[in-house]
Write a structure and sequence with these properties.
The chain is α/β, with parallel strands linked by helices and 330 residues long. 40% of the residues lie in helices and 14% in strands. A 6-stranded parallel sheet has the order 2-1-3-4-5-6, with helices on both faces. The protein has a two-stranded antiparallel sheet with strand order 7-8. It is globular, with a radius of gyration of 20 Å. The chain starts with a strand and ends with a helix.
């Protein structure tokens, strides 16, 4: 069976579609090559939706950082030296904060408390997500009134055209919310072999509450928080502990298995993206070249998936390469 990797980008304005497509693909190939996986990438499509919310894309050639179309985070290959840090304390703090946020903002049935406060946070800090969740608007011509349907329909149409394909979807940031919604509400019968969510906000109380509310409206008052029904093999959720968007990274706490017994598998990774010495642990390019994602992709591509020993070796190659590089520059 033919195979396809489908990418769904996250929130915020983006560079032009063809350039972002190239950068995602370059990141994936860089990861495979750097971790010793010599396999040809199957077909790849990046589903681009930023143009629905933004009049024009970011400009690679814009030199003025104050210009709203200045592109400050282009694709860059992984740095030779990546600091290996111990984030065990940070993980404990994140877990504590996540638990407290859930207790404050979510009832047992996932109903959202203090919705006025969470809506204010969305409006101030997450413009795209605020527009996506807009339900009431005075001007019917306002993009906020139709953005969610336009985005969902584009994603659904792009995925649905791949008939008789084995599909792996990798969705970043807000793209993971869109993918979850599309696979639940628009094309629930579409078979998806593997879903990979990276830097996902799906565990944030405001998002869980919004999903639960839509589930109730469509399921006669029941909020069934589960893996989308069409996912047949795996759902992997990857997060860097320093990624604030993925603060509540334990999706297994919020989403149960679907009828095929597929539930989210959460694990922490190191996102090594940086440009001009500035790190961004949320950037898609860094997630796409992690040894963990490369191992997932190897299993999807190859007739012979990696065994446990080989997977450990791939992870070890990435780890010791970082340590060796650190020693060289110290």
């Amino acid at each position: 069976m033919k195979k396809i990797i489908i990418g769904i980008h996250g929130l915020g304005n983006k560079p032009p579609q063809d350039l972002l497509h190239k950068w995602w693909k370059d990141s994936i190939i860089e990861g495979l090559q750097s971790h010793g996986i010599n396999k040809q990438l199957p077909d790849f499509e990046l589903i681009y939706w930023a143009d629905i919310l933004y009049e024009k894309p970011l400009d690679y050639f814009e030199k003025d950082p104050e210009n709203p179309y200045y592109l400050d985070e282009p694709y860059k290959e992984a740095p030779e030296a990546v600091e290996v840090e111990d984030h065990s304390l940070r993980q404990k703090i994140n877990d504590f904060i996540s638990d407290q946020l859930n207790k404050i903002f979510l009832d047992d049935d996932k109903t959202l408390n203090y919705s006025f406060l969470t809506d204010m946070i969305l409006k101030k800090y997450f413009r795209d997500l605020d527009i996506y969740y807009t339900q009431e608007c005075e001007d019917i011509g306002d993009i906020s009134c139709k953005a969610r349907d336009l985005i969902r329909n584009r994603i659904a149409k792009s995925i649905s055209k791949y008939k008789d394909y084995e599909i792996l979807i990798v969705a970043h940031s807000m793209g993971s919310i869109i993918a979850f919604d599309v696979l639940n509400y628009i094309i629930p019968d579409k078979k998806i072999n593997t879903l990979v969510t990276i830097g996902s906000p799906l565990g944030l109380p405001v998002v869980v509450g919004k999903i639960a509310a839509e589930q109730k409206s469509k399921n006669h008052g029941e909020s069934i928080m589960a893996t989308p029904p069409g996912i047949t093999s795996k759902w992997f959720n990857m997060a860097d502990i320093m990624d604030h968007v993925a603060l509540n990274y334990k999706l297994a706490d919020d989403f149960i298995a679907n009828k095929g017994l597929v539930s989210p598998k959460d694990f922490l990774v190191q996102n090594n993206y940086q440009v001009n010495g500035k790190k961004n642990p949320h950037k898609s390019f860094g997630y796409l070249r992690t040894p963990e994602f490369s191992a997932i992709l190897n299993d999807f591509i190859g007739d012979k998936p990696l065994n446990i020993g080989q997977k450990v070796l791939v992870m070890a190659i990435g780890f010791f390469r970082r340590r060796l590089n650190n020693e060289k520059v110290s």
